[in-house]
Each structure stands twice: as structure tokens, then as C-alpha cells.
Amino acid sequence: QVDISNSVIHGSITSELPFGYYSITPEGYNGYTFNNGTTTDLDYNWYDGDVFTLNVSNSTIDDDYEALYFTDTHLDGDKSKSTNETFYTALGVAVNLDVESNINITNNSRVAGIALSEGNTSNTTYTSEYHQWDNNINVSNSTVTSGSQTPLEESDGFFGKSAEPSDYAGNGGQNDVALSFTDNAGSNYSMKNNVNFDHSTLLGDVEFTSHWNNDGVFFYSTGHDSNGDGVLDTNGGWVDDAQNVDELNITLNNGSKWVGSANMSAEVIAPADMYDVAPNSLTPGATIEANDWGRIIDNKVFQSGVFNVALNNSSEWNTVNSSVIDTLAVNNGSQVNVTDSSLVSDTIGLTNGSSLNIGANGVVATDHLTVDSYSTVNLTESTGWNNYSNLYTNTITVTNGGVLDVNVD
Fold first, then answer.
1. Are 353 and 372 in contact (CB under 8 A)?
2. Cα gap 304→245, rounded to integer Å
3. Omega of the bond leading into 26 within 30 degrees of 0 (cis)
4. Distance between CA atoms of 258 and 300, rounded to whole angstroms?
5. Tens of pLDDT, residues 8-46
6. In this structure, which of 144, 196, 221, 235 has its CB flanked by the most CB atoms within 10 Å?
């Protein structure tokens, strides 16, 4: 456990090993290993539930040192040689962890980005029982911003000041990532990420990358012949479908605000390859018949990861660029504003006086839209009906005083 309070930290907090040292024979970088001071390596097994806790209170962890510059001058025989190298740290965010983590950011703190990845999940004592990789981030009365992969002090400047790439620009590049979650494609276990903001701000993009659990070895996305009869009959993996699926759940509570995009990269199985798994998501495109007709038959898929967003109690999300998620729940006076950007979600639900505001050059697409209990979907006069549609949906349910205002006066 690491506790940080009333402090300013210039640099990155990480659980990852140093980059290593260069070896001529064999040529390449040799990573560092943990050992007990003799010749015996320490226990490398992953133990589910052995969680690292990071507490940040009234503190700042900035991204002033997102790169390391190494200079070395040495003699090679009777000649002097020099080496100049630059090492970049992941996405340049303030926190880089590849262990199960609980992160608590409180009391007017500011953290310049968090990147969590699923590390090594091997354990020789784990056989058939369920395990999962859990990460929890709780932010209260604080701010999480984007980091910066680009070093701050560049050669271009204005009156002696260089650009600040850590400032969120909304360009969709690596300098704009505030939260990143990446599973381990070689792991048998799913990665579950839960993020909660309370009276807090998220300024930057969210990246979620998901793969099947050890595809072709443990899980079989194209099917597997379990009994050797030549017929594919299972997708393998865990019996409980939920254990085969990664998750990212982001919740904004009590006036929290997010400015940024939601980006998901997940693997997908169409019904033709579903042997013993059930659909858990929808495709914005379509699934087609597994024959020469190739006709559209459905929109249901089984997805390696699902990304859900919820806003509660007057919270707000201003989308930037393009966002793709699975479910969006907007509750209790919260609002989602889509202007000069796009939002795609399997389902969108608004309750208790909430609003979805689609502005100029904004596009929202969903399979089903629910507008309930005095909530409103607003399409402003400048939305652009004369050029293209800005709201795409297969079904709309408006109940209990809900309003769909298309502004066609």
C-alpha cells in the first residue's frame, strides 16, 4: 500500500520493472528479475485478491517526467564514444500499474492519468475455479486529467515557453488519454474495472482494450471440438459467460463532469460461431446468415469486453470526437451533450429529468432509446436536419412525461 498526502510528485508511480540493460550476447535488452539475494527467484505466482492500494489525498501527481533522457560517454579502446537515448513511459500518465489495484483519489487531488493493465495471471495451484482481475478507482472531490506521452520541454516555444501536451486538446491522440485499461490476451481470466467519480472531474479520453481469454488455448472464438468427433461443439472458456468477458464500468455521481471520448477495442463472435455462449452485446452493423445468401438476420453478438457508462445526480458528459460504448444510463437530472462529435451505444436510457442534447454536427446512434420520467432528448435548431440525420435509433420509448424535442418549428 502507498499513501500520498499533502504532496506534489513529478513523475510516474508504477509497478512495472525497469526497462532493463543492454546485452551484446545475446543482443537485446535483459529485463530485471526479483530475487532474494541468492540464486533463487521470488514467487512469481499471481494470487487473486492480493491487491495493491494507492491512496492520494490533497496531492498532485503530474506528468512532468513522462520521458527519461539518458546520456553516457565512455572510452572504447582509445576512442571516446557517447550514447544519447530517450525512453518514453507507456502513455505518459502519472500512474502505470500491472497489478490488481484499488486507487482512491480524494480531497482536491489532481492525477495526470491512470493506465491499468492485466499482468501475469499464472498460478500453478489454480485449476478449474473462477478467478478474476479486479481494479477499482474511486475519485472524490478531485480531478483526473490526461497525461502526455510527448515530453513537455520541446524545441518549439512561444516567448520561452514550450507547449503543454498534457493539456487536453481533444485531438484523440495518446497525449489526450486520461484512463486506460488493457487486458492480457494470454490470460485465462477476465479483467473487471469499476470507476466511480463523486463531485469530481474527468478531463480526457478513456481507452478500453479487451481480448478473448487465451484464445485458441483456453477460449475458442471460432469453436472447438471437445470430443474428437470432427464437429465443433464448444467455445471453451468458463461455464459462466461473465467470466469470459472483461468489463469497464464508469459511473459519474453528484455533479461530476467528464469531457472526453470513450473508446473500446473488443473482439466479437457472431451467432454462427456461438456454440455454448449467449449474446451479451449488439453490433452497430449487423450479423448475417452463414450461407451464400448472406442476408442480415440479427444484431446480437458475444463480445470479449463490455463498456458501460452511468451518470447520476446532476452529472454531465460532454463527448469529444467519437465514442462507442455498450450501455448509457442518464439519471436524476444528469445530462449528456453531443456537439461536433458522435456517440454510439447499444442502449440509451434517460430517467428523472435527465437530458440528451444533440447540438451542431452531433450524431447519436442507438438500437433503443428510452426517455422516461420528464427527461428530454433535444435536437437543437442548428443540429443540421437539412444535411443528415443526427439521431439514429431502431426504437424509441417515451413515457411518464418524457419529451423528444426535434425542433422542427
1. no
2. 5
3. yes
4. 29
5. 998 788 887 655 444 555 555 555 555 555 555 567 789
6. 144
